[in-house]
């Protein structure tokens, strides 16, 4: 029911845009620009819609807060599998959604894709990283595995872009249940002759609410105190469980 109501609002908005907007105006909008994460949060769908430009391709990206990310590889030593090799990438978007009117490789050269982070396969090309081993002509394999893991977690995903009479576009994206709080940038690009001609940006704010928010903020702002509290709480739970077990 909620999704149907949202679609009606979007449809009315699209009609209004179609009637009132000029042909070359850069315009797009979001069904919602705030996502509240509560204890029962199961993910959130956002509908993005706007104008197409005559003779241009359209590309839409959503990127989450940049952070450090680590990927590890297990190796067997003396019959035991351990995480022996690892790479830590810097300034990587925690979430990367992509939607386009045509394949990115067909509308933009690799140099622009790398410079603006506009493709899953190129997202790591201009990022700094640290590793605890020497590459043996396998760096690309590590990059591919990183993207594959993020896709499996639904943090990196491509969504369909629907067009209407070559005038309007619409795409629906889904933020997974374990989405990280923060500011997410939504960028739209209008492309012609392998060149970005116009660009616009909006933001989506994801935040925790309720008691989950209080715990999250306390843990972030008082990491040491929170860690001590967790240890003490775990010990107490263990003692209580042991006492009950002995009495039983």
Question: Features of this protein?
Answer:
248 residues, alpha+beta, Immunoglobulin-like, 2 domains, 6-stranded mixed β-sheet, 4-stranded antiparallel β-sheet, 6 helices, flat
Question: How would you describe what is shown here?
Answer:
The chain has six helices and 13 strands. It has 248 residues and is of the alpha+beta class. The chain folds into two domains: 166 residues, Sandwich (Immunoglobulin-like), CATH 2.60.40; 39 residues. It has a six-stranded mixed beta sheet with strand order 2-13-12-4-7-9. The protein has a four-stranded antiparallel beta sheet with strand order 1-3-11-10, covered by helices on one side. A hairpin with a 2-residue loop joins strand 5 and strand 6. Helix 5 packs across helix 6. About 2% of the residues have low confidence.
- Number of alpha- plus pi-helical segments: 6
> Main beta sheet: strand number and arrangement?
6 strands, mixed
What is the approximate shape?
flat
Strand order of the largest sheet: 2-13-12-4-7-9
pLDDT < 50 stretches: 19-23
Structural class: alpha+beta
Compute the number of structural domains.
Answer: 2
* CATH hierarchy class name of the largest domain: Mainly Beta
N- and C-termini, Cα separation: 50 Å
| Total beta strands | 13
Helix content: 25-40%
CATH topological fold name of the largest domain? Immunoglobulin-like
CATH superfamily of the largest domain: Macroglobulin (MG2) domain
Average predicted confidence as pLDDT:
83
State the assembly state of the protein chains: single chain
Pattern of helices and strands = HEEEEEEEHHEHEEEEEHH
Relative strand content? 35-45%
CATH architecture of the largest domain: Sandwich
**What's the Cα radius of gyration?**
23 Å
């Amino acid at each position: 029911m909620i999704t149907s109501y949202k679609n009606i609002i979007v449809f009315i908005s699209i009609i209004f845009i179609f009637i009132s907007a000029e042909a070359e105006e850069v315009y797009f909008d979001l069904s919602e620009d705030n996502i509240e994460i509560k204890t029962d949060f199961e993910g959130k769908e956002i509908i993005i819609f706007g104008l197409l430009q005559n003779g241009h391709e359209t590309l839409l990206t959503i990127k989450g807060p940049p952070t450090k990310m680590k990927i590890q590889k297990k190796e067997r030593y003396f019959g035991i599998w351990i995480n022996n090799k690892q790479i830590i990438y810097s300034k990587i978007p925690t979430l990367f959604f992509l939607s386009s009117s045509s394949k990115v490789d067909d509308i933009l050269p690799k140099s622009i894709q790398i410079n603006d982070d506009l493709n899953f396969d190129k997202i790591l090309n201009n990022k700094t990283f640290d590793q605890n081993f020497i590459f043996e002509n396998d760096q690309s394999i590590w990059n591919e595995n990183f993207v594959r893991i993020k896709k499996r977690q639904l943090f990196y995903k491509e969504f369909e872009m629907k067009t209407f009479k070559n005038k309007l576009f619409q795409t629906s994206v889904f933020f997974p249940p374990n989405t990280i709080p923060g500011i997410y940038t939504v960028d739209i690009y209008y492309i012609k002759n392998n060149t970005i001609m116009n660009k616009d940006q909006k933001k989506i704010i994801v935040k925790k609410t309720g008691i989950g928010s209080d715990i999250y903020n306390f843990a972030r702002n008082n990491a040491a105190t929170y860690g001590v509290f967790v240890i003490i709480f775990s010990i107490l739970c263990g003692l209580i469980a042991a006492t009950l077990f002995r009495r039983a």
